[in-house]
């Protein structure tokens, strides 16, 4: 092999190596559902072995003060039913919200919020890359820079399990022993009901310490 | 940074009196170990290395090496957190990425003679690793980047093809000592990985 051949092979190798590095970050082609996240938190000292819980029949819609509540209520019943199914499976009995009766083991509160997010991404023209001059020949060849405006709406479901025996000192409020926050992008193209059911189930499944027995 | 200036000075002096020098470019496949393996347990197929070596005598060379390795993984592994008596779990699709760029001063010892078809060598590099760790989950991303002091013991073989051209095959253990704040908030921020590297070498006399 002569020197010229060596250089050609070497250059091809270099080009192949550079092609393996088209980006520092891979494009995994994520779908909308891949952006769903579930966070569950619990009090390490909580006693979850109590047989009953009460849950109001209302899903609280968190809206900013002065803003109109335009959050869709069509999923509220599904959310409450899915939570009840999970609690039943864990051995908890749902009792009416009755302040005159004995306090239930827990109170489950459910809330929903929807947030609109706007952003703008700027992308540079090819000029940004510079250095193409050495390649030569096409000084007029280029690609104009610009920006794209994007928007998405995220929905969040909050589940809060309060323990009436845990009061926050100096306050007449109950303390939370379990919190779950399910966050995802609202999309009309996906089966939202199935997604909500699945994610609520997942929140309970990732909390193995829950259970009346 | 004194050591770096000293190393560069030694290299320049060595290079200027050196009779032989090598330049290499390698394709690197890397295997995460230790704490890096806890974060990403998949092999990295994206890596390159470049290196220059100047011989101070027949069997010893000094040089500089750099490279770029990308580790990444898509995972649904649960993230457990604990703080102030509250424990928790985070779930969701995650994209975990590590970009590692070593900048090392190297020294190598070679067996045999210059004209041998196979020349085995061993040596080590010492220098800095720029490491950027990223975690994407849901609609948020967390990033941490740090410069780490690191060491890289290495063993390999040079296979002569002709007077100007050789192939190189080596294995290198990259160990970047803990530095800066880890992304997970712990104390230990070390990164380590095995590399198997193959490539071409140009030599001049």
Can you describe this structure?
The complex is a heterodimer of chains A (213) and B (205). Chain A is α/β, with parallel strands linked by helices. Chain A has helices at 3-19, 76-89, 192-205, and strands at residues 37-43, 52-54, 60-61, 93-95, 106-123, 146-167, 174-185. In chain A, strands 1, 2, 3, 4, 5, 6 and 7 form a 7-stranded mixed β-sheet that branches. In chain B, the strands form 2 sheets. An 8-stranded antiparallel beta barrel of chain B has the order 1-2-3-6-7-8-9-10. Chain B is mainly beta. In chain B, strand 7 and strand 8 (140-160) form a beta hairpin. The longest helix of chain B is centred in the N-terminal third of the chain and has 16 residues, at 2-17. Chain B contains 2 helices and 10 strands, in the order H-E-H-E-E-E-E-E-E-E-E-E. The A-B interface holds A 1-3, 6, 9-10, 13-14, 16-17, 20-21, 24-26, 28, 30, 34-45, 117, 154, 183-185, 202, 206-207 and B 25, 27, 45-46, 48, 68, 70, 72, 74, 78, 82, 85-93, 95, 97, 99, 132, 134, 137-139, 161-162, 164-165, 199-200, 202.
Quick summary of this structure?
The complex is a heterodimer of chains A (213) and B (205). Chain A is α/β, with parallel strands linked by helices and 213 residues long.
